[in-house]
Design a protein that fits this description.
single chain; 139 residues; alpha/beta; five-stranded mixed sheet; 4 helices; 7 strands; 40% helix; 18% strand
Length: 139
């Protein structure tokens, strides 16, 4: 079944959810212009938050297709549409995490929990697994 729901962005980075970018998806192609627009949107959301407005930024449609589980508790989805946006958010979180390293250990741990998860055996899994072409860039 293909899912296309209006969810908060944080709902894609919880529990044991993982997303795999199928081989037929294009490589990550965001340029400086895309990042600048993303940054402007982040600042606008922050400004609304500081004004006490419970407002959210619409990141666009994310379409996934759930796969059959291979391991107990696993929830793997093919990322059909939204790969560029979810990857950008993950990169942004990773940059914040790297800056928080040592300075804000709790923030680092929270972001780590968004970017990956551990199973009951302590094995860590990335939240987003990219296609073969991009995998080494995001490792």
């Amino acid at each position: 079944m293909i899912n296309a729901n209006k969810d908060k962005l944080s709902s894609f980075f919880i529990g044991s959810l993982t997303y795999e970018v199928p081989f037929f998806q294009r490589a990550y192609v965001w340029e400086l212009e895309n990042w600048e627009l993303f940054w402007e949107h982040c600042l606008a959301v922050l400004e609304r938050y500081e004004q006490g407005k419970d407002d959210e930024h619409f990141i666009g449609t994310i379409i996934t297709k759930q796969r059959s589980a291979e391991r107990m508790g696993e929830s793997v989805h093919d990322l059909i549409d939204g790969q560029q946006r979810l990857t950008t958010v993950a990169l942004f979180l990773k940059a914040i995490r790297n800056r928080a390293n040592g300075v804000m250990p709790r923030l680092k741990a929270i972001i780590d929990g968004h970017l990956s998860y551990e199973d009951a055996y302590g094995t860590s899994y990335l939240r987003i697994t990219h296609s073969r072409y991009d995998r080494h860039y995001f490792a």
